[in-house]
Amino acid sequence: MTDTAEHDDPVTHEGRGAPLRERRLAAHHRARRVFARFGFQQTLRERLALLEKAAAVHDLDQLSDVYGDGVVEALETKVAGLLGTEAAAFFPTGTMAQQVALRCWAGRTGNPAVALHALSHPEVHERNAFSELGGLRTLRLTSEPRLPTAAEVRDFEEPFGALMLELPLRDAGFVLPAWEELTEVVQAARDRDAVVHFDGARLWESTVHFGRPLSEIAGLADSVYVSFYKSLEAFGGAALAGPAELVEEAKAWRHRYGGMVFQQFPTALSALVGLERQLPRLPEYVAHARVVAAALREGFAAAGVPWARVHPEVPHTHDFQVWLPYEPDVLGEAAVRAAGETGVMLFGSAWDRGGPGLALTEVHVRAAGLEWTAEDVKAAVAEFVARLPEQVR
Fold first, then answer.
1. What CATH number was assigned to the domain covering residues 62-277?
2. Which residues sit opposite 311 in a β-bridge?
3. pLDDT in the model for residue 14
4. What is the value of pTM for the model shown?
5. Most exposed: 5, 156, 281, 355, by fewest CB within 10 Å?
6. How would you class 382 by CB atoms within 10 Å of its CB: exposed for 0-12, middle for 13-18, buried for 19 or more?
7. Integer angstrom CA distances of residue 103 from 161, 181, 267
8. pLDDT at 12 (0 to 100)
9. pLDDT at 6 over 50
10. What would the pLDDT profile of 224-239 be if each residue is shown by its tens digit?
11. Domain assignments of the chain as residue spans, ordered by start
12. Residue 357's CB: how many other CB atoms inside 10 A?
């Protein structure tokens, strides 16, 4: 999926200020039934209501944080415990966290080359930040819509100091490797004396696919980045977790990069709320995403659409892609019209061009999506297809 350098949400693909985008967001907000209601789609009043739950996760009679102490340190301790690492550091953004992590590893390994996937977030969405700011050099292991294989890591023709794996790989369809494949890839990197860093922005929801707890998954890597807003619905923020010595060095670089923010308690509290309220529900969302995906396939087949694809066919997480053989603006218009006329928004995210005559969108299943039965999904597909122009059906 295309995206902007500054934004990594599921609704930015049409570009800011686009009339279709504005109509889609308005239709989504008014719809009585959607698959997900993200925080950035809410009003400020609705968003601030999240902090009403903060008293259940932290002592609000403590002094507020100053430059990373107090509630920020409590969040760091919580994350390190969940991931099974010695320490963790809070960062205002994942972009900063990963630049710092890979910069620190380059200094320790003596090799500034980072092996990664061509579709990984730093390659696609961060304006060459690794090379422009960190003095790092990226090596693309593959551009296939899957994670790199052990053979691709083992046989790559250039040396590298670090292997970076995005789990799941969003732009390939939120895909994950099998557990055995992942362990083989990690071992292949170790055999080359490279460290392993996980871009785990969405690692929280990978436990169902892997059949392993978070600590075991994170334990494969030398360092891990996690996001607090992509699945946990916090206001923002990220954490870098790993060995205590690395984390202490990362905090020094965080200061140099401008990440030593005076007060961060709203974001830290929202992250603690997310860990308490959202994290335990992610397996439920993943399970229901598979119900939704199957119903979408059946619905498009029943509606007579000549070709449709849900990718992955069985979602690896609670997010997946839908591909259809129409132009993006045609599909976007049909989605907005169906939502406005029925109150049901089947596709809340933008449609992006996936090739000649093809478009794709992302489907995100969260708490609101649990209300949908398979029959609800099929009925919504029929309404959506009915609003496609006759000449393209």
1. 3.40.640.10
2. 321
3. 53
4. 0.94
5. 355
6. middle
7. 10, 27, 25
8. 42
9. no
10. 999 999 999 999 999 9
11. 19-45+280-392, 62-277
12. 12
What would the pLDDT profile of 119-161 be if each residue is shown by its tens digit? 999 999 999 999 999 999 999 999 999 999 999 999 999 999 9
Size (the chain), residues: 393
Residue 329, both tokens: 């603006």
The residues near 161 (Cβ < 8 Å, ≥ 6 apart) are 105, 106, 109, 110, 111, 112, 113, 114, 194, 195
Report the mean per-residue pLDDT for the chain: 94
19-45+280-392 architecture in CATH?
Answer: Alpha-Beta Complex (3.90)
Beta bridge partners of 175: 169
What single letter denotes the amino acid at residue 92?
P
